DNA sequence: GCATTTTCACCTAGGTGTCAAGTT
DNA sequence: AACTTGACACCTAGGTGAAAATGC
C-alpha cells in the first residue's frame, strides 16, 4: 500500500521573502466542504455527509526544505512527488498524505521562517498559510470523469503508453 | 551535475524520544580533520592542509520529517537517498551535500523537537547533535582503495551488473 | 450496484562502476 | 603524474491507466 502521486501536481510561485533568510515550505490537505460526493449523469453531486473522523492531516514538507528565500523565489515550488493514499497505516512515510475517497479537498501552502540556517538554530514564528480554491479536488479510487483521465494520459509522462498515437507517429519505421 | 549517492548509506537507531512528540531528523557533514589526504602505497596518508573555505554545509533533513518519536524509534533511520557532490551550484537541491574531494568528513545526526504537529505550531528548542567516528569517510572523485570498490559492487543493488558471477549463478538455465 | 483492491504490460527515471578523455 | 569529468552499457526502482477480481 504505497499510494499514488497527485497529478497534475501542486506548484506555487512565491515572492516577498527575504532572499537570505531560511524557510521551510510545506503542503497540507484539508477537507474542503462537509459533503460526500458521487459522480452521476456526468457531474459531481453532493451525496450525504462527509466522514469527518479523519481530520488533522500530516504536514508534508517540500524536499528542498529548509532553504533560503532566494531558492524558493527562483522558480516554481513544485510538489511533484507528493502521494495520496486511503491507507491510514501509510501515513508516516515521507511525502504521503492520507485522504478519503469521494471527499473534496483543499490543499494549503505553509511557509515557515526557520531563523538562520547556521549550525542548529531553528527557532520559528507562526507560518503563513495560503489556500487557493482552484487547487481543490475530489479524491477517487477509480476515475469517474473521462476528461480527467484523458488529461492525465496526455500530460503525465508515465502514462505515455496509453496515448493513442504512441507507436504510430513514425508508422512503418523500426528502430 | 547531480552528485552521487553516499554508499554505504548512513543509518541510525534512536531511543528515548517521547513517542507522541514530534521531531525533525537531519544529517550534516563537517570536516573531520585539518588535512588534505592522498592514497599512496595502499594507504591513506595526510598530504598538506585542508581547504577550509567551504565550511558551513547544509543541514539535510530526513524525508520523513517532521514525524513522531514513535515513528523514529520504530526502525532504523536511513539516509539512503542522500547525495554528495563537489559542485557548489547544486547545493540548494534536496538531499544534496557539497564536499571537497580528498578531504575527510564526519557526519552528524541532528534531532530537533518541533512541538506538537498540530496545524502550524513549530516552535523549537536546541537540537541534540550526535557524531559517530565510525561513520567518517574520505570523499573522492575516483576510487582509490579497491576494497571499497568491491564492497560497493557486492552490496549496492545498482552495481549488480559488475558482479563477477552476475549471469553464471545458474549456468545453462534459461528462464 | 457500486467502490475498492490487485495485477499487469508498458513506460520514465535514475543509480552503478568503467573507461576514455580532459584538466591542472 | 594526479586528479576530474562525461559518456556508456547495464541495472534497480517505481509511476501509468486498464481490466479483472474482490468486497460490501
Account of the protein in words:
The structure is a homodimer of 175-residue chains. Chain A is mainly β. Helices cover 9% and strands 34% of the residues of chain A. Chain A is built from two helices and twelve strands; from the N terminus they run ββββββαββββββα. Chain A has helices at residues 69-74, 146-155; strands at residues 4-5, 11-12, 22-40, 43-49, 60-61, 67-68, 77-78, 83-85, 96-98, 103-113, 128-131, 137-138. In chain A, the strands form three sheets. In chain A, strands 3, 4, 5, 6, 10, 11 and 12 form a seven-stranded antiparallel sheet that branches. Chain A binds chain B through residues 28, 56, 58-59, 61-68, 71, 92-95, 110, 112, 117-120, 122-124, 126-127, 129, and chain B through 24, 28, 56, 58-59, 61-68, 71, 92-95, 110, 112, 117-120, 122-124, 126-127, 129. Chain A binds a DNA duplex (24 and 24 nucleotides) through residues 1-2, 4-5, 7, 38, 86, 101-102, 140-143, 149, 152-153, 156-162, 166. Chains A, B: It comes from Eptatretus burgeri (Inshore hagfish). Chains A, B: This is T-box transcription factor TBX21. Chains A, B: Residues 1-164 form the T-box domain.
Amino acid at each position: 500500500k504505497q499510494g499514488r502521486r497527485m497529478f497534475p501536481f501542486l506548484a506555487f510561485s512565491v515572492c516577498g521573502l527575504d532572499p537570505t533568510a531560511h524557510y521551510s515550505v510545506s503542503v497540507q490537505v484539508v477537507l474542503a466542504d462537509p459533503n460526500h460526493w458521487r459522480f452521476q449523469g456526468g457531474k459531481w453531486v453532493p451525496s450525504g455527509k462527509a466522514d469527518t473522523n479523519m481530520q488533522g492531516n500530516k504536514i508534508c514538507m517540500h524536499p528542498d526544505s529548509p532553504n533560503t528565500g532566494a531558492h524558493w523565489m527562483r522558480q516554481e515550488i513544485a510538489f511533484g512527488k507528493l502521494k495520496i493514499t486511503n491507507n491510514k497505516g501509510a501515513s508516516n512515510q515521507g511525502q504521503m498524505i492520507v485522504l478519503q475517497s469521494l471527499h473534496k479537498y483543499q490543499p494549503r501552502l505553509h511557509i515557515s521562517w526557520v531563523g538562520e540556517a547556521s549550525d542548529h538554530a531553528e527557532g520559528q514564528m507562526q507560518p503563513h498559510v495560503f489556500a487557493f480554491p482552484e487547487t481543490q479536488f475530489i479524491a477517487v479510487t477509480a476515475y469517474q470523469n473521462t476528461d480527467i483521465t484523458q488529461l492525465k494520459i496526455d500530460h503525465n509522462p508515465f502514462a505515455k503508453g496509453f496515448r493513442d498515437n504512441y507507436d504510430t507517429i513514425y508508422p512503418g519505421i523500426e528502430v
